[in-house]
Amino acid sequence: MRRFVLIGQTAAASGEFSLEDLPSSSGRLDALLRALRSALLVSHDVRRDVCVYLVLRGGPRAPRLLRIDGSRAKFLRPDERSLAILIKKSLDAALPHVRELSEVRPGIDLCEGDLPDLLASLGDEPRYILEEGAADLRGQSLAQDAWFFLGDHQGFDAASRAQLAARGALPLSVGPRSLHAEDVVAVVNNELDRTFNAAAR
Amino acid sequence: MRRFVLIGQTAAASGEFSLEDLPSSSGRLDALLRALRSALLVSHDVRRDVCVYLVLRGGPRAPRLLRIDGSRAKFLRPDERSLAILIKKSLDAALPHVRELSEVRPGIDLCEGDLPDLLASLGDEPRYILEEGAADLRGQSLAQDAWFFLGDHQGFDAASRAQLAARGALPLSVGPRSLHAEDVVAVVNNELDRTFNAAAR
Q1: Do the beta carbons of residue B47 and residue B23 sit within 8 Å?
Q2: Is residue B122 helix, strand or coil?
Q3: A153 contact residues in B (CB cutoff 8 A)
Q4: Across the strands, what pairs with A149?
Q5: Alpha helical stretches, state H, B45-167
C-alpha cells in the first residue's frame, strides 16, 4: 500500500467552507484536494493500492485526520468541486469525538488527531518526507509499501519536521523545481509505477 | 519555449458553461484546466517558458484555439474554479471571427481554428505526441524548445493522430499506467526540468 500524507497547516477540519470560494474559505484545502486526485485517480480508474491521509489543522474541530482508501472509496470524481463536496459531506458527518479512524462515507474515514497520532500508528514501513533540496528520489531503492509525507503551500512546520525525523523519515526531492503538492505526488506515483510496473494493479 | 497542446474533443469553445457543473456543462473542459495548471504553475510562481494551447471542439463557436502564454499571463490561480472563470471570461470576449491569435486578456490569446491551423503555424521545433504504449520519454533526447500534444479523457481521434503523424510528431509515453493529462504534463515538465535544470528560469 502506498500512503500519501498531506499536511494542511490551515486546511479546514470541518465542512464550514464555501464551494464558491474554496481557497480562502477552506484554508487552502483546495491544494490538498488536488493532491488527493493526483494520488488516487488514473485514467478511468482508481488506484486501489493507494491511501491518502489529510492532516487538517484549520478552523473548528481541528486537528482532525481524514483518510481516503482507494481500495474502498466510491464516487471519486476528478474535478475539484466534486471532491470538495465529497470531503465537505465527510467532514460534516455526525461523528462523535473519536480517536480512531471511523468510516463516514464509503472508503472515507475520519477521527480527531494530528500528525503525532498518525505517526504513533505506523508499522515499520519505510517513510519519506518530500522536500525541495533533499536527495533525488530517482535512483533510490523505494518501497511500494511505504509512507510519503508532503506539506502544503507553506511546506512543513518545524514541529512536524522534527516529529517525522524522530520517526526516521528520509527526506527526498523530485527534481530541481519547487512544485505544487499534486505534481510532486504525480512524479512519486510515476516513479513507483515504473519501479513496480503494473504488478500492484 | 515548452508548448503543451491539449485537445478537447468536446470541450466548450464558448463561455456557455456552468461553474456549478463544470464537467458536464463544459464538455470536460475541467480536464484541460487541470492540465493547464500543471503545465504553467509551480510553487508560488508561473513557468515563464511555457505556453499552453487548448483546442476547443465543443459547442457553440467551435472549433477555437486558446493560448495561455506563461511569459505574459497574469492572475493565474491554481484552483479549478478560478481558472474556469478566467477561461470563461476569455471565451466570452467580444472578439470578431479572426483566424490569428489575438489577445483577449493578459497573456491569453484566442482565435477560430482547429489542430490543422495550429500545425500549419509550427516552425521546425520537435513535436511529440503523448500516448500510452509509445516509447518511454525517459532516456530520449528531449528538446526544451518543442511541442507536446496531449488528448483529453477520450484520447486522440484518428484524424488528429494522422495530422500529427504527417507533421512528424514522435509518439512518447510516460510509463506503464494510463494517467490523467495533468499528471502526464507534470511528468513531462519534471523530465524537462531534470534535463535542462534551472537554466530556463
Answers
A1: no
A2: coil
A3: 43-44
A4: A5, A129
A5: 80-91, 115-120, 158-166
The conformational region for residue B24 under phi > 0 = left, psi -120 to 50 = alpha, else beta, is alpha
Cis omega (within 30 of 0) on the bond before A176? no
Residue with cell 481524514: A66
- Cβ atoms of B134 and B149 closer than 8 Å: no
**Counting beta carbons within 10 angstroms of the beta carbon of residue B149, is it exposed (0 to 12), middle (13 to 18) or buried (19 or more)?**
buried
pTM comes to 0.96
Cα gap A70→A9, rounded to integer Å: 24
Cβ neighbours of A80 in B, within 8 Å: 30, 34, 79-81
pLDDT in tens, chain B (201 residues): 999 999 999 999 999 999 999 999 999 999 999 999 999 999 999 999 999 999 999 999 999 999 999 999 998 999 999 999 999 999 999 877 888 999 999 999 999 999 999 999 999 999 999 999 999 999 899 998 999 999 998 889 999 999 999 999 999 999 999 999 999 999 999 999 999 975 444
Which of B48, B180, B188, B192 is the best residue to mutate to test the A interface, defined by the most A CB atoms within 10 Å of its own CB?
B180
| Min Cα–Cα distance to chain A from B99, Å | 32
| Residues B141, B201: Cα–Cα separation, whole Å | 20
Instruction: Report how far residue A64's alpha carbon sits from residue A84's, in angstroms, rounded to the nearest whole number.
Output: 16
Contact of A194 with chain B, judged by CB distance below 8 Å, is answered with: yes
Beta-strand ranges (E) seen in chain B are 2-12, 41-42, 45-46, 50-58, 64-69, 102-105, 108-112, 127-136, 146-150, 170-173
Name the DSSP class of A69: E
Spatial distance between the Cα atoms of B96 and B84, rounded to a whole number of angstroms: 22
The minimal CB distance from B194 to the residues A42, A45, A176 is found for: A176
Q: Which of A182, A5, A153 is nearest to A78 (CA)?
A: A182
Helices B29-40 and A29-40, packing angle to 10 deg: 100
Contact assessment for residue B36 and residue B68, using Cβ atoms and an 8 Å cutoff: yes
